Amino acid sequence: MPEQHTEIRRPSLPLADVLKALGDPTRLEIIRQMSVDGEVACTTLEKTLHVSKATISYHIKTLHNVDLVTIRKEGRFYFYALRADALEAYVPGFSAHLRTLPRI
């Protein structure tokens, strides 16, 4: 009798990681702002999200770990930008959809 495998196949780990990163409302708003405004300064995110630098840093690190954002330092200021190409590779059409969402 042939051996049967009933193992459930999981989605690829990178896709699961990206979806998990996008599942947080604060991170989704960060991505939305970058999609609309392009590069965004940390100070801008502080003002619009009403969260601390530490909170922004935590969320940016999560998004950066799945290659959805780039980080640029200029002097003592940090700037973040969406890697729309990476987002489109994982979730086609999502970048365009983000621009239609209201602020969270």
Automatic annotation (TrEMBL):
Pfam families: HTH_20 (PF12840). This is DNA-binding transcriptional regulator, ArsR family. PANTHER family: TRANSCRIPTIONAL REGULATOR, ARSR FAMILY, TRANSCRIPTIONAL REPRESSOR SDPR. GO terms for molecular function: DNA binding; DNA-binding transcription factor activity. Keywords: DNA-binding, Transcription, Transcription regulation. Residues 8-102 form the HTH arsR-type domain. The keyword rRNA-binding does not apply. The lineage of its organism: Bacteria, Bacillati, Actinomycetota, Actinomycetes, Mycobacteriales. PROSITE patterns: HTH_ARSR_2.
